Each structure stands twice: as structure tokens, then as C-alpha cells.
Amino acid sequence: MNRTIAGNTLADLTFRAAEAYGDRPAARYQCEPDTWEQVTYTELADRVADFGAGLIDLGLAVGDRVAVLGSTRLDWSVAHLAIVAAGAVHVSVYPTNSPEECAWVLGNSEARAVVCENAEQVAKVAAVRDQLPALEWVIVLDGEAGGAVTADEIRRRGRECGPEELHRRAGAVTPDDPYVFMYTSGTTGPPKGCVLSHANYRSIMTANTALEEAEGSSSDADMVLYLFLPLAHAFALLFQLLAFDRGGVIAYWGGDTARIVPEVMAVRPTHLPSVPRVFEKVYTLAVGSKPAEERERILAAAALGVRVRDLVEAGEEVPAELQTRFDAADTALFQGVRALFGGNVELAITGAAPIAKEILEFFYGCGVPVMEGFGMTETSTGATVNTPRHHRFGTVGRPLPGIEAKTAEDGELLLRGGNIFQGYYKMADASFGAVSDGWLHTGDLASIDEDGYVSIIGRKKDIIVTSGGKNLTPANLENDLKRSPWISQAIMHGDRRPYPVVLVTLDPETVLPWAQAQGLPDSIAELSRHPRVLELVAEAVDAANAKLAPPEQVKKFAVAERDLSQETGELTPTLKIKRKVVGENFTAEFDALYGD
Known about the structure:
Helix content is 40%, strand content 20%.
């Protein structure tokens, strides 16, 4: 079965998809909560043609950079596909970026135009417009905004001039032409603009297709992708392209994080890309918040599920006694967990940050295959991945077809393949992201076993060296602590200090209901100092420490009065922790832990 219709570039993907899939649904979206509208592939191509032709009529030239500043929605996809069809280069901007961050990305990329979601995003650009000499046009998707061209005007221009020039340009794009300037989320320093070519993204799409064909996955015609991750990130963008390439349907979230689970249940997706925090929260609801005895029974049932599903995947017979116990567990537990994801998930991919092995085993045992992978913006999203048929939980899987992996003498993971980026735009950085003889220096420390499974040990820049010379990797302890139902974030500290300590933040979704039932204060700040809460955190710290050698164990902990956030600069848009910012914002808390 031919699983791809894309050509050598992504410029004409929309029009190829319309020819191949016609009236098949391409997208679903909500105008109002719980009211889903549908767009076919033919209609999607018409929308892209109108918008792309309108941009050309406005004056957009081949090679110009155009940014999109908005949340994940159908109009974002239309704007993106129209920009690249017009021979221009898409520039990623996160909708949560501040005006100053927008100024950096738009200025560094020399964007000639920016497509804004609404008046609120237009206002961000207006606040820094005097810093952007290359910016000529601001376009607003929803309604009107001062100084902005409306999307209706762009579409009107496109309909009047017709799509001929747009199609000519789309056909003239070459694989080596820049496709996107994808800006990293910037855990250290300003975001870097990764130049990714059409060939780079086409390479990673080809690798995914080859992998799924080898795995014998089901028909793409049944693919339903629920998409809530920011499309400004490489992870979500890849899944969008794969869905449109294969004739699947994308169900766009409604924009409210509190409604993700209800929407997933309504959409019943087959594919669900996500970040670990979402799976961690569901795991906490299903397991972590239960009494100890019940939790043990649940985990034992999930372990049984893992055993049976591994036998099935290996083509081996399941003993009758094991099948009977499995069927009982399926009725009592597994069906309910699958229902939280709509009941149809064939593949959920987690990436962008580490996730605990126990969480992956739990979901897999329940019949929700959450598979961990590894990649970077610099690798056009992907590099390694586990699959339902070939997985080793605790690793990030094996390299995708066509991608090579090895470790340097110091343990740094090196990657090579057609998906490796073209460098940072107007920015050289020899310490990270360097490419030597085709090998990308990832900045991650890793090991690779005899079967090719890659295990990420930690980031080179995150390694803590105590004043006694002990090298510590914080990821393991931090991930263990985040499995506690009471803890939202955990940050180990101790570089050039006599011993490691940890700062934790409380998870309001679990702590506040518990506190209310106990008659305790309803303020996170007050609870962070309450003896009952400190006891809960101490238990979690002791359990995490028990897995470590004495020099690696944290000696003290502090509980922050608030959670980390993007607004305070401590989290990236993909929820990665900016350790330097956390260290600066919580200097007093860390210093107090070394006070005596």
C-alpha cells in the first residue's frame, strides 16, 4: 500500500492531497464547544489556494520569511501551507511569547510579514514594531485590528487573481530550499532559528512511513489525529504533515487545556502526540491518588497486561490461565483507562522531556500504547522511537530508518541522516548543535545497547558537579519525584555546592482537593509551609532517594509557594524547565537549604 502522496517538497502537499483524497475529511474543528465542523481535502486546498494567492498579490516574494503567531487551529495550518506553497519560508512563533520574544524571532528571521491569530497577538507585534525594519505586513485571522490586513482581504485578493502563480511557485520549490525557520524554545539564551529544508522534513516523513510499513500498522484512511500541541513546535508540525500526507483527519483542540480529556474522549483519536505532563496527570488520577493497597493491585494488573500484550506482539500463544486473568483485568481496569483516551488509540507518542518507565508500562498494559521517542528541532523532530511491536521501556527506542546514532568518547549522543538541519540562521554556536562529518552533536549524554536502543542519561549542560567533584544527573530523581500525585515540578540544585538539594512545586489539581477534605488552607502558598504537606513531600523524596547511591541523594528539599510557569520565564512553551531562570527566581529558597 502506498502510504505517501507527498512529492520531493512540501510546497504542493495540499494540492496533491486534494487530488488523492478529494471529499475525504481533512480536518475537524469547533466553532463552539462540543460542536464540530468538518473540512474536506478539496475544501482545504481551496482555502490554501485563496490565502496563498492573496499573499502573492499583496507582494510576497519567493524566499521571503513569513511568521505565524497563533495557537493550534485549522487557520494556522491553512496559513502555513499557503506560505510554503507561495515559495516563502515559514517562521515559527509561539503564541505564548512575550512582545520582546516576538521581536527577537521576527527580527532575527527578518520576517517580511506576520500572520496573527487575533487583536491580542497583533498588539504584541505593534508594541515592538519600531524594532522590526524588515516587517511590512501584519495580517490578522480573526476580526480586525488596527494596522493589520484582515484575512478576508487576503482571501478576496487571492480569489480575484487566481491560483495560477501560486501553483507555478509551488512546483518550482526545490528540496534544498528552506522550508521553515523553527525557533528552539530557548532553555538557555535566546531562541535559535533552526533552518530546516524541504528535504529535511521530507526525510523524516519518509523514515516514519518506512517504520510504520515495517510495523504493519493499520490503514491510514482510519487515522484520526487529535492535535493540541503548539504547531510552532517541530513535534506537532510533523504530525500535521503526516496526517495530510496520508489522508487522515486532524481534530484540532478547542483551545482550553481543561477540556483536552473530554475532547479526546469525543474525538476518539487513533494517534495522539503529547508531552509527558499530560500522561503524568492521567496516570496520577488513575494510580497515584489511590490508597496504597489499591495502587498495588492496579500496578499488578498493568504488569499482567504488559506480559500478555508482549506475547501477542511476539506472535506467541497466551496461556489460558493468563488470558483469563487478563480478561478480568480488562473489564475491571483497562477498558476504563482506554476510555479516557477515546478507546481507539493505536499510537500515542511522548517526547520533548523524559517520562517515567512505570507510566509507559502502565498505559501499555492497559492497551494505550504510549511510546517514547527522542528528537530535536535540529533533527526535524524525530531521531529514535519505540513502537508497539519493538519497544524497550526506559529507553527512547531505536533510530528511525535512515538515521544513524553513536556516542562520542564523552558519552554525547551523535546523530546522522537526511533529517539533520542546515544550521542556525545568523547564529553560530560551536558548543551545541555543531555538525561534524554529518554527525549532529546533540548535547545529550546517552548509551546505546547491543540491540540499538538508545537511553538518554541527561543533558551535558544539566550535569551537576558538587564542590566535592561528584558528577550528578538530575533527571532520574526529578522524574521519580514528579510521579508523586502531590508534586508538579522538581528541580535538583547543587552545582559547586557541598551536596544536592531539590526544589519542588505542588500540583494544585491534587493538593487542593486533598487539603479541602482535610480541612486545611486552600492556598498553595500556605500549604507549601504546612507540616502535613511537608510530610507528604518528605515521603516522596525519601522514596526517590532510596533508588540512588548516597552521594547522589538530595539532603534537603524546599517547597515553592507557587508552580513554575511560562509567564515567569521558568518554562518554555513546550514545558521544558529553564534551570538558570529557576535558579535566579528561587535564589533565596536554594540558599536557605545551605544556610547551616
